[in-house]
Amino acid sequence: MKLPLFLRDDSGTDSVVPPSGHTAWLTSFTAAAMAFLAVFALALSLAAGNLAARWSDALDRTATVRLSAPEDQIDLQTKAILDTLATTPGIASARAMTDEEQRALLAPWFGPDLPIDSLPLPRLIEITEDGTGYDTEGLRQRLAAEAPGAVLDDHTRWRRPLAVAASRLRLLGLLSIVLITGATAAMITLAASAALAANAQVIRTLRLVGARDAYIARAFVRRFTLRALVGAAIGTALGMLGVALLPAADSAGGFLTGLGFHGAGWLLPLALPPLTALVAFAATRASAFRKLRELT
Amino acid sequence: MRSVIAFENVAYSYGGGELLSDISLRLAPGSFHFLTGPSGAGKSTFLKLCYAELLPTAGHLSLFDREVRSLSRDDIALTRRRIGVVHQDCQFLDHLPLAANVTLPLTVAGRTGEAKDLNDLLGWVGLGALGQALPPSLSGGERQRAALARAIIMGPDVILADEPTGNLDWEMSLRLLTLLTELNRMGKTVLVATHDLNLIRQAKSQVPARVLRIAKRRIQLAGADL
Ligand SMILES: Nc1ncnc2c1ncn2[C@@H]1O[C@H](COP(=O)(O)OP(=O)(O)OP(=O)(O)O)[C@@H](O)[C@H]1O
Ligand SMILES: [Mg+2]
Predict the structure, then answer these.
(1) Are residues A32 and A172 located together in one domain of the fold?
(2) Cβ atoms A252, A37 nearer than 8 A
(3) Which pLDDT belongs to residue A119?
(4) The domain containing residue A249 runs over which residues?
(5) Which of A36, A109, B92, B218 could be cross-linked to A235 through a Cys-Cys bond (beta carbons 3.0 to 4.6 Å apart)?
């Protein structure tokens, strides 16, 4: 593999700065730990993003009217409700669920052999909105007048806070990635400053024999960028392995199964090592030039 | 080029009172100067001004006819490649062998191909066998000779030497002096800070050297009494 120009050691810069000894691996370790955490933050925000999208998509699309009425009035009131809904602006269609559909809805909780006829189950009427939406309060009042046993459940009541929470979670995940990037920059700046301070005499001598700033900086930038790149690559690999090995809990897992990468999503964490290297490059270069400006 | 180094009413202070005041002086190309004065008078400080490690606190200083304050950091680096300096404290990279230290100016300038004279040069200063030794293991005199080798390996236009013979026996001092006077005959401008009056006398028999003396914060051309 050919390294980019600024990482190659064509100029002997590597040997003019003494080897950094046992603290060198700390930079790699930090980069690895940060990349590992970033993989999970990324997985979290992707999953939360999917969830938020799914929930808010379903949020305004459907609602249900639940009708609890004495046996002999059920059909009458169902018809009244459907008539009312048919004349409500903003509602695309409304449909009473069949017994089979209701049984299917309840099966996960009560099993398939539910004697649905002998239970006083409410009748469910499914509403699909058109794009414009309807006036919830107005509909509620009209339903109360036409069918006293009808309750409009527009899902928003419990779904909206979930959708909001999911978007918040995604935001927190993204914020974590920003913070992890910032912390990486800060730690590499500290490590680079320590290396520069330890080599103050070397830097002074190089400057005195006619070395340009860019030449001196390159020795440090090259080291820290490579260390960060290698560390981040290892951390990312381990993080991705961890995500890949999460047990698949299928539908029952809900949110947890969404925690992972799908398809092209697996390419996203691969951006972490180059990003870390870029951060290390910028942080070290800035520290080096700041240090060099103390000398003529 | 009118002068390689030109001081015009230059003053320098480390923060307290002025150490050097109102210095006006030109080093013409190809000239040979000695700089003397009591310890602490400011000889090393004067040399540091000459290679822009320090900048004047007042007045104008030109290197190769360019005002130092107008030089960019890269210009300063390039200017230093034309000035070979023997620092009083040598300034080596202790983790690199002597040979790599001597060729360091070529390395940082990306001119490593020109290091072929290295063995001749090390032989001249009597360090032929010590190329792979690390600087901390060398004697003071060996370090000074290596510092001189490093100062001239680039073929600089100007050579500034700060007490280059401070730790050397008379024979080796003469050897280095001969090296410097030969370089001067080849057209290099030389400035040597030293306490050693015998060395100055010896040099005057070889080249038309002039003696500058720092006294009471000024630099004067010393009389013929030396
Ligand atoms: N970095 C510094 N900060 C403050 N004062 C300094 C600094 N360097 C030198 N000085 C002071 O400036 C004065 C001149 O120092 P300089 O090294 O130029 O003297 P010198 O003539 O070379 O002496 P010597 O012959 O002993 O080498 C001294 O009094 C010294 O203490
Ligand atoms: Mg001195």
Answers:
(1) yes
(2) no
(3) 73
(4) 5-50+166-294
(5) A36
Q: With beta carbons less than 8 A apart as the criterion, state whether A8 and A220 touch.
A: no
Per-residue burial over A181-201, b if 16 or more Cβ lie within 10 Å, else e, is beebbebbbebbbebbeebee
Q: Is A289 found in the same domain as A186?
A: yes
* A46: in domain: yes
Do A43 and A173 belong together in one domain? Answer: yes
The encoded tokens of residue A52 equal 């938020």
User: Cα torsion for B45, B143, B114, A9, to the nearest 10°?
Assistant: -90
* Assigned domain for A153 exists: no
Using an 8 Å CB-CB cutoff, list residues of chain A that contact chain B. Answer: 11-12, 15-16, 18-19, 202, 204-213, 215, 292, 295-296
pLDDT digits (tens, 9 = 90+) for B88-130: 988 999 999 999 999 999 999 998 888 778 999 999 888 999 9
- Give the C-alpha separation, A139 to A146, whole Å: 10
Query: Full-prediction pTM beyond 0.90?
Result: no
Please give the tally of structural domains in chain A.
2
Shared domain check, A265 and A177: yes
Amino acid, single-letter form, for residue B220: Q
Q: Under a CB-based contact definition with an 8 Å cutoff, are residues B58 and B11 in contact?
A: yes
Regarding the beta carbon of B41 and ligand 1, being less than 6 Å apart is answered yes
Residue found by looking up tokens 């992890």 in the block: A180
